[in-house]
Design goal:
The protein is α+β, with helices and mostly antiparallel strands. 28% of the residues lie in helices and 24% in strands. Strands 1, 2, 6, 7, 8, 9 and 20 form a seven-stranded mixed beta sheet that branches. A four-stranded antiparallel beta sheet has the order 12-13-11-14. Strands 3-5-4 form a three-stranded antiparallel beta sheet, with no helix packed on it. Helix 1 packs parallel to helix 10.
Length: 408
């Protein structure tokens, strides 16, 4: 069955590569693996693909391009990420590269992203995609994963290689891998986006006015303190915009309830003070609060802030990135530290190889990096390329018994 996207009952199922997590890195990993002729299973906890790229109501894909004075015409990394961009451009040719500040970004719609990811998976005969499926336990023997138990519809999978694309390294932690996790005080703020409609006579000054007014309100204790870091951006039409709320860690259920209530307070407050918001209403929101930082799994190398800012290249560098270190700090808000204009750093394959577990790779947000370096590596464009490289390496190991020897 080509690209099974509905899921089916599988018991004691053997596969060559198991990818857990169907976000942007997981889809790329699974597609790359399947394209190289190995039997691949992709397990996704939701009923859709794309992870935060779909659930977060994001407007832009970051980390695709080399930053500099010249407008880029192609993605910094080749491969699947370039293919995805091409497919998105065909669906919405009006959405072209934009420069905001010192960086280049690509506008996209979540619907387009879902279509592209679904088609990529469906077209791979070696790929079985399972929705509403999570890993519940991992068995390991002699530093090798021998079994992964999943909830229904799959009861047990026996993979040759496992790729953890869960964002917070859930599967790696189950396998006993070491990890780093910043304290709640240091951890990056999470995000939650509100899609507004009914705006009138908007202009670009609202991106300045909205944060200013909300900051004033929090200083006067008219609104909760965490709302002072809310940002605003215009939408595709004149009557819509997006407020991105940034919030610290707490009990997940309580935080979800709090932020949805406070979203209404934001709109009411702005409606009384800014004419464009007088008749505004919430048309949509993120599906949930989205974390920017979770577990960082310990790999054979840990990428550092100095590696990023000094544009370091590696003998086993597999992904290029020019995106700045972008930290959403609990006390200071957003902080940027830039890679030299026109240059990029590399992420070595060793950051994807989980330390002391022979057949476990990670890709996406949970790779082996420091808290600071994560501020650059966690973005969508980079995570797609990380997923592809993990998938390629896993397929190679499934065929040859070892990872490729990457040397430049």
């Amino acid at each position: 069955m080509r690209g099974n996207l509905k899921g089916r009952s599988i018991t004691n199922h053997s596969c060559e590569v198991l990818v857990v997590g169907g976000g942007v890195s997981g889809v790329a990993a699974a597609v790359a693996s399947a394209r190289n002729g190995v039997k691949t299973v992709l397990a996704e906890k939701e009923n859709f693909l794309g992870g935060m790229g779909y659930a977060g109501l994001h407007q832009y894909m970051c980390g695709l391009y080399l930053n500099g004075d010249v407008m880029p015409t192609e993605t910094l990394n080749a491969g699947i990420v370039r293919e995805i961009v091409g497919l998105l451009n065909k669906l919405s040719p009006q959405k072209t590269i934009k420069k905001i500040g010192q960086v280049y970004i690509l506008p996209y719609s979540r619907e387009d992203l879902a279509k592209v990811f679904t088609s990529l998976c469906r077209n791979e005969k070696n790929l079985t995609a399972l929705f509403n499926t999570t890993a519940v336990s991992v068995k390991k023997k002699n530093k090798t994963i021998v079994e992964v138990a999943l909830n229904t519809p799959v009861s047990k999978v026996i993979p040759k290689i496992l790729i953890d694309c869960t964002g917070s390294g859930v599967v790696s932690a189950m396998a006993g891998a070491g990890f780093e996790l910043s304290s709640l005080v240091k951890r990056q703020l999470a995000g939650f986006t509100i899609h507004l409609k009914g705006l009138k006579e908007c202009d670009e000054t609202l991106s300045i006015k909205v944060p200013y007014y909300l900051s004033q309100a929090t200083n006067k204790k008219m609104l909760p303190a965490y709302l002072r870091f809310t940002t605003f951006s215009m939408g595709d039409t004149d009557d819509e915009g997006f407020c991105k709320i940034n919030i610290g860690g707490s009990d997940n259920n309580k935080r979800e309830q709090t932020i949805r209530k406070d979203a209404l307070k934001i709109i009411s407050y702005l409606a009384d003070r800014l004419p464009p918001f007088k008749n505004a209403y919430i048309a949509n929101t993120s599906l949930r609060v989205l974390e920017r930082e979770g577990r960082r799994i310990c790999g054979e190398y840990t990428l550092t802030e100095n590696d990023v800012l000094n544009a370091r290249k590696f003998r086993d560098g597999v992904v290029k990135n020019s995106w700045p270190i972008e930290i959403w700090d609990k006390n200071k808000g957003i902080i940027y530290k830039y890679v030299k204009s026109g240059d990029y750093y590399e992420i070595p394959f060793r950051c994807l190889k989980v330390k002391d577990i022979k057949n476990l790779l990670c890709a996406g947000r949970c790779i082996s990096v420091t808290h600071e370096a994560l501020g650059s590596t966690r973005i969508m464009g980079t995570c797609i390329s990380l997923g592809e490289q993990a998938g390629l390496a896993a397929a190679f190991k499934a065929k040859h018994g070892n990872y490729p020897d990457i040397k430049k």
